[in-house]
Amino acid sequence: MAAAVALLVTGVVAGYAAASAFEPVPATSGAPEPVVASDPRVPVDPLPSANASPSVPALGTDLPMRDARLGNGGLRLAHPVPVGWARLGNGNNEAKWKKPNNPADTFILRVENVVSREDTIAETISDRIGDLQDEKERFTIEERTASTLEFTYVSDGFPRHGFLAWLDMRGTGVAEVEVAVTGREMDARGAAQLISRVTAGMRLAEDGA
Description:
Structural class: alpha+beta
Number of helices: 3
């Protein structure tokens, strides 16, 4: 009996070893690597330094200013602009101003007559936020008031800082003038002061004024 049991055990062990020898070995292909998620939301790619886009000094503060004009007919405006900045375009309802020879992606001032849209300032801000959310990468609101908007976003991989303000010059109940200053993150301090000075100096232009 003991001999029979020993033979049975020996047979079971031998059979198990034989079965294991014929099982396929999983294939490997080098060192293990992390699996990429199908929708990796975090972390996001880091942004380069704000100083890298492009190498032009930051927008300063306390710039010397001069008067400029915009519009004709129903709404004619006078407002300050930095001395030495050049006007881009000759439209009656919109003017852009920038320092000559500066690349377009440094800093720029824009003044526009928007009375034809007939939207209140609150409506204009809400609409503009929706547009910016759709158009700008990593759009973030930094500050919103009853008539202004400060925000950041990314353009071509570089951080940008924008300021918008709206004015009702004649008490019509609608936004009549839009002022914008956009620049790099490094320009934010100068841009904030510039838009404040332009809006504070905005006025209706009389004949010969």
